[in-house]
Amino acid sequence: LHLHSLHLHSLHLHSLHLHSLHLYRLPLFLDRGELLIRNWMNLRDGSTGKVLWQSTDDMSKPGKEHSARVPKKVLKCKTVSREVNFSSKHVIEELRLQQRVLFNDSILEDWHFRFGFVIPDSTNTWQSVIEAAPAQDMLPSSALSGNVVIETYFFNKNVLISTSSVRVFYV
Predict the structure, then answer these.
(1) What is the Cα–Cα distance from 160 to 23, expressed in whole angstroms?
(2) Residue 76 three-state SS
(3) CA 44 – CA 34 distance, rounded (Å)
(4) Residue 4 and residue 109: Cα distance in Å, rounded?
(5) In angstroms, rounded to a whole number, what is the distance separating the alpha carbons of residues 83 and 41?
(6) What is the chain's Cα-based Rg?
(7) Torsion angle of alpha carbons 112, 116, 122, 127, nearest 10°?
């Protein structure tokens, strides 16, 4: 996967180039002490812009495994645009997160993201474009569905803010 991330300040971030498995990350923001509130999230076909999945569900509560039902046609896209809209009442000096993708309880991939400075009393949209791995390197949705858990660790600089866990079902 090639990951290109953009956020409110037009920062362009290039991260991992992975070919082992075709997965899409779901960014999940936390409502812990009103530090971050995730307003909405969507996944679009990167070629057409058509919304394939959207949610306003709160999947941010720590200590609970949440679930997301994502259309399996997302796995057929050559690129997927992911948008997350979140608000913060407080300043966050350096918002960053780590996501671990577990497949059948084993760490498959470990991704790191940096949003940067979050202005207090702001609403922000974070967009990422994810490119698919070659077709021969992808697992079918039937193998992935229900067997993928995305663990997200939220940090302000190096201080852990909270965690979230989401099991992905491809429907």
Answers:
(1) 25
(2) helix
(3) 28
(4) 17
(5) 6
(6) 15
(7) -50
Burial of 91-103, coded b for 16+ CB within 10 Å and e otherwise, reads ebeebbbebebbb
Q: Residue 12's pLDDT is what?
A: 28
Residue 10 sits at φ, ψ, to 5 deg, of 60, 30
Q: In 24-158, at which residue ranges do the beta strands (DSSP E only) sit?
A: 37-45, 51-55, 65-70, 79-88, 92-103, 106-118, 122-131, 148-156
Regions in the chain scoring below 70 on pLDDT: 1-35
Within the chain, what is the greatest distance between any pair of CA atoms? 46
Q: Phi and psi (nearest 5°) for 111?
A: -115, 150
Question: At residue 119, what is the residue type?
Answer: I
The reported pLDDT for the residue numbered 34 is 52
Q: Provide the pLDDT for residue 145.
A: 97
| Distance in angstroms (rounded) separating the CA atoms of residues 130 and 126 | 13
The model's pTM is 0.74
For the chain, the residue count is: 171
Cα–Cα distance measured from residue 60 to residue 48, given in angstroms and rounded to the nearest whole number: 29
* Predicted local confidence at residue 88, as pLDDT: 86
